[in-house]
Amino acid sequence: MLVALRRALLAAILAAVVAAEEVQTLTDASFQSSVQGSPSLWLVKFYAPWCGHCKKLAPVLEKFAADIKPTELGEGVRIGKVDCTEHSSLCDGQGVKGYPTVLLFRDGARWEMKAPRTADGLRETIRKLKSAPVTQLGEGGQAALDKLLEPDGAVVFALAGAGAADPLAAEFEAAAAELQLVSTFAAAAGPDLPSQLAPHRGSVVKLSRGEPSAVFAPPSDGALPATLRAWLEAERFPALSVVERHNFFGMLSKDISLALAVVDP
Q1: What is the CA radius of gyration of the chain?
Q2: Cα 41 to Cα 80, 256, 261, distances in angstroms
Q3: Where in the chain is the domain with CATH 3.40.30.10?
């Protein structure tokens, strides 16, 4: 009995060591050489050793790194961590304001993880960044769009029938690449658009179940990129949202009124 217990304990210790090795410790130098501009998708935790939330995330991240390594999801994905008490200039340069902050990098682009810091949240974050930023609805677009709108509180920004040469299409694609971790983007083309998009051909439409659609109005002064991104940021939440740790500050950062109802479930 005692021998079996010792073997089980040793196996658990070895598994923990292997998992920890999957999360690479990064310094200023190794971050610049390995992460910046890398074609691999890097997920990096910026932390402080004394931070309680960081300690809670550590085993979750280590197990997640080990679990996805042999899978298709883990192909081309690297995971690292930066101790901000030792590399404060690197953390300041990345705009880290609190701990832990999880950032993702690929080909010079940078995203901040907004999902819950759980295995499911990590998995969904990686899945999104390994998928195309814009879902092409194609034939049967109505069913595909309805599926995107199924989850409670889902918001979909859809480009309705704009041609590839339309400046709005190019800006929509660029904005989707920047914001794909916080919003869902879709595009429909052809003569038969989904019913929610048919009245708005050539426009970007915000859709959410149970709410009236909102349509982006391109500016007359030509400031399309900034105006579109500002609209997408302001409209990315449904009118009624469940406030959680990962989305609360995103709601506060917008130039809109926020009313909170505190309920006892």
Answers
A1: 21
A2: 11, 34, 39
A3: 2-129, 134-252
Which residues have a catalytic role annotated? 51-54
Which of the pair, 261 or 170, is modelled with greater confidence? 170
Helix (H, G, I), strand (E, B) or coil at 62: helix
Burial class of residue 64, CB neighbours in 10 A (0-12, 13-18, 19+): buried
User: Which one is the CATH code of 2-129: 3.40.50.300, 3.40.30.10, 3.40.50.720, 2.60.40.1120?
Assistant: 3.40.30.10
161-216 tens-digit pLDDT? 887 778 899 999 999 999 999 999 999 988 889 999 999 999 999 999 989 999 99
Return d(Cα 123, Cα 218) in angstroms, integer.
35
* pLDDT (tens digit per residue) in 41-68: 999 999 999 999 999 999 999 999 999 9
Q: Which CATH architecture has domain 134-252?
A: 3-Layer(aba) Sandwich (3.40)
pLDDT reported for residue 243: 63
Which carries the bigger pLDDT value, residue 17 or residue 185?
185
Strand arrangement of the beta sheet that strand 77-83 belongs to: 23-25, 77-83, 41-47, 101-106, 109-112
pTM of the model: 0.81
CA distance 138 to 99: 42
What is the signed CA dihedral for 198, 200, 203, 206, rounded to 10 degrees? -90
Q: Tokens representing 55?
A: 């300690």
